[in-house]
Amino acid sequence: MTKGHLFAFGIVAILLLLLPLDALAVHIPSINIAIENTDDPKKISAALEIILLLTVLSLAPSILLMMTSFTRLIIVFGFLRQAIGTQQMPPNQVLIGLSLFLTFFIMQPVWSVANEKGIQPYLNDEINFKQALKNVERPMRQFMLKNTRESDLALFAHFAQIDNPKDPDDIPTSVLIPSFMISELKTAFEIGFVLYIPFLIIDMVVSSVLLSMGMMMLPPVLISLPFKLLLFVLVDGWHLLTGSLLQSFV
Hints:
Blueprint: H1 3-18, H2 41-58, H3 60-66, H4 70-84, H5 92-123, H6 129-146, H7 150-159, H8 173-212, H9 220-234, H10 237-248
Helix pairs in contact: 4-5, 4-8, 5-6, 7-8, 8-9
């Protein structure tokens, strides 16, 4: 830094010190958070609703995984990538994005009913928060009950000490959610097993041909991968698989 720069810097500093403090004042908004005593039940109810809403938003990713079709979709697509043997193709971002959009498509009728019966009446002050929560929960429970095996429900109902529920409404949500999750896992693994069969046959045929030709140093995966990709493209695999997954939720 030259002497000229030092001199200019000193002049600016002196001028700033000579300026009145009011000239340097900046209007900065302040935020006050206070806890006050109140006897108004409406204020207490509104505060609890805000806390509950923030809790639901923080648990939104878990709700998406536990109570929708996302689990089955992402597991099946993961099995497909492993069966073909394409390593990281399609990448995780693509598979997760495809699973999310298919989840939105599958769950759209359920969420429409929840919005029509629960959210909109609550926003219009037609029902209270407790009734809105029940109306939103009802279509979600119907979706999960439709895709949950009775054996899985019986398992968790037994450990929850619920004896022979006569009506679906008698099953608590805390029992329904884990039952739905393990049912989805089993269904996804069944679909994954079916996906593996044609690609496994191609691997076995290619390995047998290479072994009979004495080409033991050549990895069979390098030869079988183009054939598996060709088979998947010729049968329009993405169309068939996506259609089968959508049909499994109907």
